[in-house]
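agent: user wants the structure for LysR family transcriptional regulator from Rhizobium alvei. delegating to structure tool.
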Amino acid sequence: MKIDDGKNLSLDQLLLFQAILKERSVTGAAEALGLNQPTVSQSLRRLRGILGDELFIRSGRGVEPTSRALELVEPVERILTILAREVLARSDFSPRDSDRHFVINTTDLGEITFVPSILRRFRAESQRITLEAKCLKPQDLMNAMRLGDVDLALGYFPELTAHSVYSQSLADHPFVCLARKGHPLIRDGLSVEEFRCAEHVGLIGEGHAQRRMEDRINSAGIDRKVAFRSQNYASIPFIVRDSDLIATVPKMLAFCFAEFLEIEVFKPPIPIEPIHLKQYWTERQHKDPGQIWLRRIVAEIFLNNDPAANFKVGNGSDEKP
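agent: tool returned. relaying tokens verbatim.
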């Protein structure tokens, strides 16, 4: 690949750029690429000369990208994606013969909701394909998807707004309130006043749909008494069962835990818009045959099919709130 001054930009240098960006370490990039340190250092010097920028500067134990390097992330990713998808990749995908390892990004509640059904479909079509779930911070998720470390984000991730992100809406999912049976403040359903007087569980994990619920309660002028904050969904039903705390959570959490934990489920006493569950992917994954297969499986299982849709809640309604 010729540059204006006659210098050559190689595929190896682009792969090195991507590896250093991912590892935040020249030594780590060398190990990831199976190269020795002198070769990597020499290639990086040439790349700096071609692009006229340091690209990476020392920071603590590793390196950080310069502003110019950050500008290059998307175009470099686009070049490598085209090469991988249109030049080097096979044009077909056979689940039966594949041993691919797929990585999805979802919350702990997302693992409970999505993963069992996906794994059943995997084993119906393949004995060797495997799955891994991660829950990355919003600022790390986009970069992980661009670099190919995450194949699919599944759930509610409104931060994924870059023009290179694709998405498919699956279902709208409501919130409910959880309380232990025999809660001393709750008489017949859950009123606004009872909601206001109770102590609450709050969720503080980054990227959670809980942020929408928190914003809606604040806009309604309700000053909740948050006695406990957690980064995880899965512990909340147990905390509610053994305390007088109330939790406002996605309905799926109630569907999974309410019956065997003997906790009560109520429609929130104030309107809270549902969250929009989607699957998200980037240009890197868009035409990959294996990723298309993965997205098809997710859509076939969950498109317009909320597993908790028919779960009954209190406040005199048998319908989803």
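agent: one observation worth passing along. Residues 91 and 289 are 7 Å apart (CA to CA).
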